[in-house]
């Protein structure tokens, strides 16, 4: 049976509450605008009726935004009656094809879908065990299968929803890496705010090792501003000043066939002899 397409005035199409996916005014959106101007809306939106009137968008937030920019007054859509849980699942699934999804978008989308599946309850394939922990695990496994990852990775993304907004924005921008961010999500809001303040004043971001240590101190009730400052201001191995010599620029000073390790050993030996010679020279000049 073919589904009927209905043309709906654009002012009757409303965004889905708490939609985890951003509608950014970028080149990708502009490309959709140009496509719609040339070809029209090829794929109808998917919407559901709202109790207060109008329709709630399940799939097609960017298409609606593009139509608005293109000056289109009405948009074709499929109208489907579904409850909020089914709508959330459909919303998340409809965005799986997107080329790039921000970490925060994945985090909130996975969480919304997981909660919706749990609320659906009484599904035979989810409630065989009967215990909340097993129900949660099976729900995570279902989300994982749908999005093409592991249940563990789903849970790690969901942990990001525990970050305060400024830290989550840093994860999206790439300033804070994903793995340290997951560890930082276990810090309390107050501890995260103290960390954010230290990151700003010292212009540093935590490594995975630093984030893990702060998580451990937090669990032990020992993470305060002083501890955060001490950890964040320590010198990281990759921040230590280094002197690098290109092999090609020094190989002529060594016998043919010398390995890099032999060259390094010889250079250090010569430097040690030079240091001793300078010390003797200073002593003789006294």
Description:
The protein is elongated and about 100 Å long. Helix content is 55%, strand content 8%. The protein is built from 13 helices and five strands. It has 286 residues and is an alpha/beta fold. Strand 3 and strand 4 (55-59) form a beta hairpin. A five-stranded mixed β-sheet has the order 1-5-3-4-2.
What topology does this entry show?
Blueprint: E1 5-9, E2 13-14, H1 27-39, E3 45-49, E4 55-59, H2 61-70, E5 74-79, H3 84-94, H4 103-120, H5 132-147, H6 151-159, H7 165-173, H8 178-184, H9 189-202, H10 208-219, H11 225-232, H12 247-250, H13 260-284
Helix pairs in contact: 1-2, 3-4, 4-5, 4-6, 5-6, 8-10, 9-11, 10-11
Family: Belongs to the ParB family.
GO molecular function: DNA binding
Region (Disordered): 121-142
What's the gist of this structure?
This protein is an alpha/beta fold and 286 residues long.
Strand count, sense and barrel status of the largest sheet are: 5 strands, mixed
Number of strands: 5
Query: Strand order, biggest sheet?
Result: 1-5-3-4-2
Shape annotation: elongated
CATH architecture of the domain at 1-81: Alpha-Beta Complex
Distance between the termini: 103 Å
User: CATH class of the domain at 1-81, please?
Assistant: Alpha Beta
Query: And the CATH topology of the domain at 1-81?
Result: Conserved hypothetical protein from pyrococcus furiosus pfu- 392566-001, ParB domain
Radius of gyration: 29 Å
Strand content: 5-15%
Secondary-structure-derived class: alpha/beta
Low-confidence parts = none
**Superfamily at the CATH H level of the domain at 1-81?**
Conserved hypothetical protein from pyrococcus furiosus pfu- 392566-001, ParB domain
Count of alpha and pi helical runs: 13
- The helicity comes to 40-55%
Order of helices and strands: EEHEEHEHHHHHHHHHHH
GO biological process, one term: chromosome segregation
Biased composition (Polar residues): 123-137
Protein name: ParB/RepB/Spo0J family partition protein
Domain ParB-like N-terminal: 6-96
